[in-house]
Amino acid sequence: MPLPAARTPLAHLEPAIALGALDGRYRGVVAPLVDHLSEAALNRARLHVEVEWLIHLTSHDVVPGADHLAQGEQDALRALVLDLDAAAIAELKDIEAETVHDVKAIEYYLRRRLVEVVGADRAVALGELVHFACTSEDVNNISYALMVQGAVTQVWLPRARALLDQLSGMARELAEVPLLAHTHGQPATPTTMGKELAVLAWRLRRQLDRVGGTTYLGKLNGATGTYGAHVEAVPGADWQQVSRSFVEHLGLTWNPLTTQIESHDWQAELYADVARFNRVLHNLCTDAWTYISMGYFAQVRGQGTVGSSTMPHKVNPIRFENAEANLEVSNALLDVLASTLVTSRLQRDLTDSSMQRNIGTAFGHSLLAIDNASRGLAGLDAVPEAMARDLDANWEVLAEPVQSVMRALAARGVEGMTNPYERLKELTRGRRIGQAELVEFVRGLGLPAEEEERLVALTPATYVGLAPRLLDHLEG
Q: Which residue in 449, 448, 441 sits closest to 423, CA to CA?
């Protein structure tokens, strides 16, 4: 039976009910991103750019004869950004309803506040320098660069690095715990659990290094990137230097060649790197899930969680499954952002404007996945006994070192070492052997005594090569 048509509407209940999960059940995890990537954060960033542009023009005598702002007046204008509150956000919304233009609303809001800061008389002239010679994209591209920079460096990267530290710590703790490796799902050369986790940590760290090295670009060069209005208004100014000094003053890298829009290539590069981090993290989650299913990790009980609604014995690996789903949503958005933002029809179209409003959602799902993966890892206890059982049940994996020793001896001219691969294949392929069968085989090869005793003493649990020592690379 379908839901009844006559039911209490939810859309108008107070407090407002979120449409999406990020602003609903997961709000607490992603809330720090609101300060950087929300609509209100965008307007705050725009106001910041407009205020700083006004101060820049007046402080550097860019426009001859223009009034100067005293230090106290500059501080008062900057306080508008710092103190942006619900009332200011509501006022901006009301202005935008009249202008039907979000950036123009910021300009008008600042003009109103300018009257309060410098007085009505001085505000007449100074007000003409608000948004001077700017196209909306001059303000928007810098605003988005600052917003994304803040979200990445202050929220996303610290959380991701904390996860990396957590994983690296686990890897070190399990550096010497032997593990039966599986390639193609089949028993393979043993390793250690620590080394396998270290591989994932190494991969994640490479991506975080790339994200940490992001160059955030900004431009301020007018309606088609030519400084046309700037030059006509003030021919004597070095407008390229004015633009560059302003962009760099805001902590960004100046882009000297653009159309009306900053080309967004840096964004595409960043989103590709974040997506790659997400994909490596997804691999971590699927491997952790698999190790849990194999009994190599036990999930810590007593955390107040219900594993199954009907099977009391179960503790489901839900943190890793939740992380996988959110990583996939994040990557769907990051991929479309990276692929579409690099293209603009001729000088300008507005597809990028709508597309960039999804940046916060993309990072939100990634942040949520990082949180779930971290909580999942925190709830794991290694079970060396289970790993040891599987190792002891797969002595055939020692066929590799035996045939490798035989190859080395054959290369030195030792007789009787021919066709080692084929001889070991005949012994081991398609069937299990135990220690007794392997020892009997090795004793019958006619190996030099030293090599024979070394191979006879070898076990699946000790056949881990340099695995424990490879953890040293995590220190670099």
A: 441
Can you give the pLDDT at residue 88? 96
User: Across all residues in the chain, what is the average pLDDT?
Assistant: 93
Is 137-384 CATH 1.10.760.10? Answer: no
* Residues assigned a catalytic role: 184, 308
CATH architecture assigned to 394-466 = Orthogonal Bundle (1.10)
Which pTM does this prediction carry? 0.93
Using left for φ > 0, alpha for ψ between -120 and 50, and beta otherwise, residue 416 falls in left
Query: Average pLDDT in the 146-160 region?
Result: 98
Max Cα-Cα span within the chain? 105
Mean pLDDT of 179-196: 96
- CA–chain centroid gap for 235, Å, is 45
32-134: which CATH architecture? Orthogonal Bundle (1.10)
Q: How far apart are CA 340 and CA 344, in angstroms?
A: 8
**DSSP string of 395-422, one letter each residue:** GGGGHHHHHHHHHHHHHTT-TT--SHHH
Average of per-residue pLDDT across 111-118: 97
Report d(CA 420, CA 425) in Å as an integer.
8
Tokens (6 digits) for 8: 């209490």
